[in-house]
UniProtKB/TrEMBL annotation:
Record organism: Timema poppense
SS bonds (residue pairs): C149-C159, C164-C170, C224-C311, C229-C294, C237-C253, C257-C266, C267-C277
Origin superkingdom: Eukaryota
Lineage of the species this protein comes from: Eukaryota, Metazoa, Ecdysozoa, Arthropoda, Hexapoda
Signal peptide from the UniProt entry: 1-17
Name the record gives this protein: Thaumatin-like protein
UniProt xrefs under InterPro entries: Osmotin/thaumatin-like_sf, Thaumatin
Keywords: Disulfide bond, Signal
């Protein structure tokens, strides 16, 4: 029996569920890492696999996935109410193969949430890991793609980029830079969501954040606009910033702060303000490489003006690749 595992992340606000969809457009398997603020537990305990071409998403106890044998799957109200496999008859209605319930401390901020796991067999082709997560609308955290991972049957093993402690589920650990980050603060100041792409610690893969339910303000591209970094930066990364694997291939591009760890490049000490941390005055303006190729992403610590996006009452699609 072929086994494929898919995950859905639902962030349920007090008034409106927050929907996050993930799409892997890289042509290779990635392992998405996630971390809530303060280093506490995150969806699926901080990690899940996303195969090449796969797309997953969810909203308020409802989920679906593409890119595998099952094309659509709905779960509403707790029990399984409806199942559809497109492109063929349903030979066997999905049946539970195992269930467990546990309470994990918190997701992002302070509220408890429950993680319900259930294995479901559909037509003896796919085992689907169902995960339903809910929290308040004030979650803050980040997602990133890990590449070149080699996990054993217990979910233990290293990743070439974005590693979070040699394990599939990051469990409160952040990704080791350089790594491209999609960052969110839901229901922040003024009751709006804040989101951005950060290359402050470097880059490993292209990434985009696209609001699902709102149109961009024609007068302000940062109001419900798409934060995008679609360029492949590893090939032309300055030699001194390159992160290579054991075979010598460039797998990521470091920031100047990560590569050299100086106060000036890291915007700290005497350079710890927007006025004193200005890359244009550096001997080598390394952030310009990232900004010229990915103008909508943070290229250094104080790159706020052209990198921070806001939206309200929207879900978000995160595309890697």
């Amino acid at each position: 029996m072929g086994i494929a595992i898919y995950l859905v992340v639902c962030l349920l606000g007090a008034a409106l569920g927050k929907q996050f969809q993930f799409h892997n457009n890289l042509g290779q398997t990635i392992w998405v890492g996630s971390l809530g603020n303060a280093g506490v537990a995150a969806p699926n305990n901080g990690g899940f696999q996303l195969n090449a071409g796969a797309e997953i998403g969810g909203l308020v106890d409802e989920f679906w996935q593409t890119g595998g044998p099952i094309d659509e799957f709905w779960q509403t109200g707790g029990p399984i109410d409806e199942f559809l496999q497109t492109g063929g008859p349903i030979d066997e209605f999905p049946s539970p193969e195992g269930k467990c319930q546990e309470l994990i401390s918190s997701l992002g901020n302070i509220n408890k949430f429950s993680l319900r796991l259930g294995l479901v067999i559909a037509n003896k082709k796919t085992v689907n890991l169902q995960v339903s997560v809910s929290t308040d609308d004030g979650w803050a955290g980040r997602f990133w793609a890990r590449t070149g991972c080699n996990f054993d049957g217990n979910g233990i093993g290293p990743c070439e980029t974005g590693d979070c402690g040699n394990k599939l589920q990051c469990a409160g650990a952040g990704g080791v830079p350089p790594v491209s980050l999609a960052e969110f603060t839901l229901n922040g100041y003024g009751g709006v969501d804040y989101y951005d792409l950060s290359l402050v610690d470097g880059y490993n893969v292209p990434v985009q954040v696209i609001p699902l339910t709102k149109s961009v303000d024609p007068n302000n591209k940062y109001s419900c606009g798409s934060a995008t970094c679609t360029a492949y930066l590893n090939n032309n990364c300055p030699n001194e910033l390159r992160e290579t694997n054991s075979a010598g291939a460039t797998v990521a591009c470091k920031s100047a702060c990560l590569a050299f760890n100086t106060d000036q490049y890291c915007c700290r000490g005497n350079f710890g303000t927007p006025q004193t941390c200005t890359p244009s005055t550096w001997a080598q303006n390394y952030p310009a490489y990232f900004k010229n190729n990915c103008p909508g992403a943070y290229s250094y610590a104080y790159d706020d003006v052209s990198s921070t996006y806001t939206c309200q009452d929207s879900g978000y699609k995160i595309i890697f690749g």
